[in-house]
Amino acid sequence: FRYAVVAGIALLLLIPLLMVESLVGERSSLYREVVADISRTWGGLQQLSGPYLLVPYTERVERERVVPVEGGKDRLVRETRLEASYFVILPSRLSFDATLDPESRRRGIYRALVYTSEIGISGQFTLPSREALTRIVPALVDVDYARSFVVTGLSHPSALREASPFVWAGVPHSAEPGTQPFENLPSGFRVPIALNAGQGTFDFSQRLALSGSGGIRFATAGETTEIKVRSPWPHPSFQGQVLPASYETSDTGFSAVWSVPSLARSYPNLGTLHTWPRHFTEFAVGVDLYQAGTHYKLVERSVKYGVLFIGLTFLAFIVFEMGLGARLHPVQYGIVGLSMVVFYLVLLSLSEHLAFLTSYLSASGCIVLMVSCYVGFALRNYKEGIGIGVLLVALYSLLYTILQMEDYALLMGTALLLVMLAALMVVSRNLARGNK
Asked: How far apart (Å, rounded) are the C-alpha atoms in residues 75 and 69?
């Protein structure tokens, strides 16, 4: 009956544990809202798409329509008219050279990781031959190279801090806001270009300074796209459809290089505006500035081990009671269990203001001292109080180790359970013989 009561107390402690877990979720949700708001004002996850060359053209289109005739059959009429649209031409060569400088922005007690970036864009456009254009538009009439646009997509243009002139064939040009007529790019800027059709190839370059958060993406627009990204942030998380061809990471930062051919994507190097795929920018590569885990994630994971820790502590108490021939009152079990629940609340409160390691040491040290002194006085044996303190120190040390080993947390937690149960079996193996 006594063991059943102790087990019931352990189960009842699930209620305050769930309340603490709910509180962690609420604080974590508030943190995410604040970080999202900072990201909106600073600049969210940036994606750079393009540049794309849009060249206007006209084509002859034949259409048929039915004309009603009074008192007779409807008449089929064939009409021919000219329609205007744009060719979409992708670069024959495209290079991005980006540097991400991370920094922390604070609002109240919350911090958000953001970055500023310097990006160099360079490459070359090659005008397609008339034969290639006619293959795309068989009824092609005319191509107006003098009214072309170079359009570049940017997911958060409000975070653009500086844009150098767009240098086209050695001549600087000023950019304009908006991506018209390329409506498949929702945001960005464009540069009006008067092309010389007889030249054939055109080099271009531009430098952008922008801010963002989370990470950065690059749409692979060139027939060959080279992307280089460097940052002093030591924890990159490479994203997108293609991983880097090479990369280096260290405690002082990372560098990565992508080389993506046009055959890796699903859309062509030459097309027309009205047939261009709407979601073509989804094929992109990039990197996130990965945070190994916010303190809320660590606290939430530690709460999940609460029942295990309370159960192991109660089992140790029962073994100590049997060894001493003394007993703790069920109320005292409940008080010790509540103190172990309060540990997570203290950890949550401190971690919002201090580093997680400092918060963890302070919270666990406070609870270990309180419980060991309380048990020592309750059992009237300071050695048992010291023994309980050593046990709790071991438990909290192992918990911190598990929290730092995110990929192996389940394995370490299971191993902890097996080791502790084996230790308790060894300690209690002679209890039945002693009762006889």
From this structure: 7
> Could you report the per-residue pLDDT of 221-250, keeping only the tens digit for each?
999 999 999 999 988 999 988 889 999 999
CA separation for the pair 255, 274 (Å, rounded) = 39
Q: Which pLDDT tens digit goes with each residue over 107-123? A: 777 778 889 999 999 99
326 vs 249: which has the higher pLDDT: 249
**How far apart are the C-alpha atoms of 156 and 289, rounded to whole Å?**
18
| Residue 305 exposure: Cα atoms within 13 Å on the Cβ side | 27
Residues with Cβ within 8 Å of 27's Cβ and at least 6 positions away in sequence, in order, are 296, 348, 352
Return d(Cα 234, Cα 254) in angstroms, integer: 6
Which helix (H) or strand (E) covers residue 266, if one does? none
Cα–Cα distance for residue pair 171/194, rounded to 1 Å: 11
- What is the H or E stretch that residue 27 is in? helix 14-42
H-helix segments, 201-260: none
Q: Whole-model pTM?
A: 0.73
Bridge partners (DSSP) of residue 80 are 62
* Residue 180, number of CB atoms within 10 A of its CB: 12
- The rounded distance, in Å, linking the Cα atoms of 414 and 221 is 48
* Residue 35 CB-half CA count within 13 A: 16
Residue 230 C-alpha from the chain's centroid:
18
CA-to-CA distance for 397 and 386, rounded, in angstroms?
A: 16
